[in-house]
Design a protein that fits this description.
Strand content: 25-35%
Oligomer: single chain
Number of strands: 22
Shape: globular
Distance between the termini: 78 Å
Length: about 475
């Protein structure tokens, strides 16, 4: 007997329950629309299940152990033992709590949940194929649709994720033992976050990167702080080399082969290899052409300011809609799409979208760099505050890095770059300032709690005004 061959209808169909999809579904339901949310894997998407949350859990746990083991200067002497299986169990508990919460929130807001893979039949219908033998499928007709199918790791030629020693980030975060030797292919944000984690856990880590520095896209002085800290933890970097393949080694491990642009080969012994060279949108499961949807040359669905695609009534949010591929951007886009469908004057404004890298130390940015501001015709003014002049940073033992602000010649905040402790939290203040159109004087005249790391933002602004107290004015 085949179960589930039925036809249903909904006003709003959301495909994918990641940070873009479930937020869109809830907001649409809050606008009194009938909403159906289809998810084929796990509620919360990659972010909650295999990406943002698991990696940050591991980063926090390894930081606790590392800080305890290296706090002799504070008079603390400890030799913590790390139980990776226990850490894994704790991480899974955090994930389960959050994903279960997403499911409960959707149900509490009246969203109908369907498990399965949605494939377009035409511009107003999908077929949802349920997993499991004999579970069948069902047809869902919709008035509007929001596609939020997310992204997946890019697979390099010669490095199949089906091969046991070859891992993506989710695989690495599910290991029950720490590899003695780990080769990381790619020095972007994922590669840098996880290379630092496993160096702190005791792995000998080698990072292979085709470019000439870590964290492409970030300013050199920002990236330098993170690279220097990683090197102090024992991470080795091999720049100008691209991974070309791997083979089994006689010692039971593997050998990773790299090649330069000139054809020079090198080899690195390892027990596991993490491939972290970026992510690509998931569109191939949708049968999108049946609805008239065509990805662009980069594989993304192009959208307008309402997050609507070229097909009327079909919207795309999150990673599948292109840069910035950030969970919080996906959620913001999901809200815009839902409110646009509800007939509200919603539009996505990408003026101030912060980004964070949870390396050691953290990096967070928003808006324009000084070079970008100059390229857009501004005569930018900058100000900096080093954390080694921050009283609060000194009391934490984390003094590397700085806060830098960028403003227009008439004093409006245009951007900020932070590298240092709690950068991911500190970036909220300059983000709000840019969103509100604040001037340097507005931030400088805001009284900040002492002693806090956030005072560094105030001092950077004061420095841009030429009136800093706790750092030398330029």
């Amino acid at each position: 007997m085949v179960v589930g061959d039925v036809t249903t209808g909904t006003e709003v169909l959301v495909i994918g329950a990641g940070p873009g999809g479930y937020v869109a579904a809830i907001r649409a339901a809050q606008r009194d629309l009938d909403v159906t949310l289809v998810e084929r894997d796990a509620y919360g998407g990659v972010c909650l299940n295999r990406g943002c949350i698991p990696s940050k859990a591991y980063i926090t746990a390894t930081d606790v152990a590392h800080e305890a083991a290296t706090a002799e200067e504070m008079g603390i002497h400890a030799d913590p033992a790390v139980d990776l299986e226990g850490m894994l169990e704790w991480k899974e508990g955090v994930v389960d709590r959050l994903t279960g919460g997403v499911e409960k929130l959707c149900k509490a807001n009246g969203v109908t949940l369907l498990e399965g893979t949605a494939k377009f039949v035409d511009e107003g219908t999908v077929r949802v194929e349920h997993d499991g033998e004999g579970q069948g499928a069902e047809t869902v007709a919709f008035e509007d649709c929001i596609v939020s199918t997310g992204s997946r790791p890019i697979q390099l030629p010669g490095f199949s994720f089906d091969d046991d020693p070859v891992l993506d980030s989710a695989d690495l975060l599910s290991l029950s033992t720490v590899p003695d030797r780990l080769v990381v292919v790619g020095a972007g944000y994922i590669g840098m976050e996880l290379s630092t984690v496993f160096a702190k856990l005791g792995s000998d880590v080698t990072v292979v990167e085709m470019l000439d520095d870590v964290l492409p896209g970030y300013e050199a002085d920002v990236a330098r702080v993170v690279r220097t800290r990683a090197e102090s933890l024992g991470v080795d970097f091999e720049f100008g080399e691209g991974a070309s393949g791997w083979r089994d080694a006689a010692d039971g491990g593997i050998v990773v082969t790299t090649e330069t642009e000139d054809g020079e080969e090198s080899t690195y012994g390892a027990d596991r290899v993490l491939v972290a060279v970026g992510r690509e949108p998931v569109t191939d499961s949708l049968d999108a052409e049946a609805a008239g949807l065509e990805p662009n040359d980069d594989g993304f669905f192009e959208t307008d300011e309402r997050c609507e695609t070229a097909v009327d009534g079909i919207y795309a949010v999150g990673d599948v809609a292109g840069d910035p591929m950030l969970a919080h951007a996906a959620s913001a886009e999901g809200i815009v799409a839902a409110e646009a469908i509800a007939g509200e004057p919603a539009a996505f404004d990408a003026q101030a979208i912060p980004a964070a890298v949870f390396t050691d130390p953290e990096i967070a940015t928003v808006g324009l760099t000084a070079d970008e501001a100059a390229a857009e015709g501004y005569d930018p003014v900058t100000g900096e505050m080093p954390f080694n002049a921050s009283g609060r940073a000194l009391t934490t033992g984390e003094t590397e890095g700085f806060v830098r602000v960028v403003a227009s010649e008439d004093g409006f905040l245009l951007g900020a770059q932070i590298v240092g402790p709690e950068a991911s939290e500190l970036i909220a203040e300059p983000t709000l300032a840019i969103e509100m159109g604040a001037r340097l004087e507005d931030v400088a005249s805001t009284i900040h709690t002492h002693p806090t790391l956030s005072e560094a933002t105030m001092e950077a602004v004061e420095n841009a005004l030429g009136q800093a107290i706790h750092t030398l004015n330029r």
